[in-house]
Amino acid sequence: MNIKLALVPGDGIGPDVVQQAVRVLDKIGQVYNHHFEYETVLAGGAAIDVAGECLPKETIAVCKSSDAVLLGAVGGWKWDVLPGDQRPERALLGLRKELGLFANIRPAILFEELAEACPLKQEIVEGGMDLVVVRELTGGIYFGEKGFKQTDMGLAAYDVEQYAEEEVRRIAVVAFDMAMKRSRKLCSVDKANVLESSRLWRRVVNEVSKDYPEVTLEHMYVDNAAMQLVRNPKQFDVIVTSNIFGDILSDEASMITGSIGMLPSASLAQGNFGMYEPIHGSAPDIAGLNKANPMATILSAAMMLKYTFGLTIEAEAVEKAVKAILAKGYRTPDIMSPGSKPIGTKEAGDLILKEIT
Ligand code: NAD
Predict the structure, then answer these.
(1) From the alpha carbon of 285, which atom of ligand 1 is closest?
(2) Are 241 and 299 contained in the same domain?
(3) What's the domain range around 234?
(4) CB of 77 closer than 6 A to ligand 1?
(5) What is the pTM of this model?
């Protein structure tokens, strides 16, 4: 396969970790006979410094003309003084919108080798945890009407949560398809006891479920879901939810794994196009110090192989290589435990490359 990728390394540790993911993709290319071609573009603080804006038109154009996008992270102390609408992080919202990335897929996997990093009691996560949050990414309250108005209680601010049937339907289809590939269990999270938008959400999810009779569908209120995630996370397999609920629940789920440097994510558009990125930020405290864990980005590249290009065997080869180095006791500083072998960003890349044969 010939694959054209847009690379958006971004800021902080973004370039450090994307570099290692590219090495891994090139090795996959050698072993499985694929050719990867890359075009690197600017976003975030790096783009502000060079082009005066966080998401230059050229970046959008290159991403749109590529088969997929691999992103590091954006943001950093240097740009924290800028007003909200000029900050590097705005590039993420812009990319999601411009590229039509309506489905955010965030797996939360507790690797057995890293069980001690989990903040929950061991008996709760015994045998590992492996769930996926499918979050709606371009609708709801983050993109709804917002503004200010005068009230008899003083100035009021408002943000509108709104979902249209089609927006719910397309994310529900992504989630049901995902459930079909996993354990055929789907939990839709809403607040239908209070919110009209949630009642519409629930009705549409129920309608879509008729096309997936093999999938067991459950509905759960978001407050209960937040509680169940720490009480018994193993009850979940695929969770589908709105933009704001997904933002919160996916962060909660990822914290259960205890290792922010390990978790990948995918943001998908209609068709196979997607943007792939680690869930962590730009970690300016360790940028350029060979301390960043590149595994979340490398696993994001594995998700890209699977979801955009259908290269399941290649994706599994990458996942197995990551697990193999953990099983051999190698640890970057963020997941270090007593008795393990310390490695840096580059060494992690070297060791993973060696496991792909
Ligand atoms: P962060 O995820 O960058 O860092 C939180 C902590 O985790 C830090 O101590 C950091 O050193 C550590 N860490 C993160 N990734 C790591 C990795 N791969 N290996 C080892 N340690 C790792 O979150 P933050 O400190 O809240 O944010 C820093 C900047 O990143 C901010 O400007 C923020 O807005 C931005 N941010 C960007 C994204 C994104 O680009 N998707 C996401 C979150 C935060």
Answers:
(1) 11
(2) no
(3) 119-257
(4) no
(5) 0.92
